[in-house]
Write a structure and sequence with these properties.
single chain, elongated
């Protein structure tokens, strides 16, 4: 969970929040599992919903590391440029609607389960 699961650096300061988001989405999906065959769609839905966000955290954390070390090639120790580069970079992390995030995961899970059921019945 969190930065341990997503191999990110700590410079975005988002690891604990990512762990909570991961736990929320995964626990909600696992709550929908009714049989062993539902585990794969649940884990696939989790990965589909979470991966883009967590990969963005990985990248922005690396970018933040470069900002802190003044090695990004743009700031070059200029405080005004640094502030401009830093301001707002956490907004997208803080401003997520987790209810929508979970609903998206449910939609993917339900679609995968329906596809499996229809395929087994010979409709696909």
């Amino acid at each position: 969970m969190g930065d341990a699961a997503h191999a990110t650096t700590p410079f975005q300061g988002a690891g604990a929040g990512q762990a909570i988001e991961d736990a929320l989405v995964l626990s909600e999906l696992l709550g929908r599992v009714q049989c062993l065959r539902d585990l794969e769609p649940a884990l696939a839905a989790y990965d589909t919903v979470r991966r883009p966000r967590t990969q963005r955290v990985v990248q922005t954390s690396r970018d933040a590391m470069k900002l802190f070390a003044f090695t990004d090639g743009k700031v070059n120790g200029n405080a005004e440029k640094w502030n401009k580069a830093w301001n707002g970079r956490m907004d997208w992390i803080w401003d997520i609607n987790l209810e929508v995030h979970v609903a998206d995961a449910f939609e993917i899970f339900d679609q995968k389960v329906r596809t499996r059921i229809f395929a087994k019945a010979g409709y696909i």
